[in-house]
Amino acid sequence: MKKFIKLFLILGVITTSNLFGGLTSDPVKDNISYHSSLERDHLKDYDLNWLSYITAFQKSFKENSKKPLLVMVGATDCPYCDSAKVLMKKDNILKRYLSENFHLVYLDQDVDFVPVDLISKGTPAFWFTSEKGIPLRTVMYGLKNTKTLLMHAREVIEGM
User: Fold this and answer.
1) Is 99 part of any domain?
2) 126 pLDDT higher than 70
3) Is position 12 within any domain?
4) Can you give the C-alpha Rg of the chain in angstroms?
């Protein structure tokens, strides 16, 4: 019975923290597993090296990298998200620039844990964050053309 109560309290704390903004963008500090939907292989067709949230942090730490993150928050049944992924796949200049300058993270808000700092009103949402997960600029919603995303990405890199 004591083990059950302890587990209930732990889960309750995590749930309450998530609902009321108690979690941060730091997966180590929050002690939460950020396994991404990416590991289910559905984004392999889009020619970009999308990482899970925790993998991006681990890669930054191992490489001692100051490379920022580009976090795309999407949804499972979002036609605009699918359209954005297709647009990004077709633009070789954008793919090369993003791959060279950012750790790319894809979070499906229906499946993955999305840090409080990155919860979005709509999808797709593109967040530029520091290597520690701190947002560097306001969120960009949607993707009508890749030139806009490339422009924002360049502004982030130039501003660092």
Assistant:
1) yes
2) yes
3) no
4) 16
Domain, as residue range, for 84: 24-158
In a domain, 63, yes or no: yes
Q: Give residues with Cβ within 8 angstroms of 88, minimum separation 6.
A: 46, 48, 94, 95, 98, 143, 146, 149
Contact 152, 126 (CB under 8 A): yes
Can you read off the two tokens belonging to residue 10?
């732990």
Is the backbone peptide bond immediately before 124 cis, with ω within 30 degrees of 0? yes
pTM attached to this predicted model: 0.71
CATH code of the domain covering residue 56:
3.40.30.10
7 is a domain residue: no
In angstroms, the CA 91 to CA 147 distance is: 9
pLDDT at 44: 55
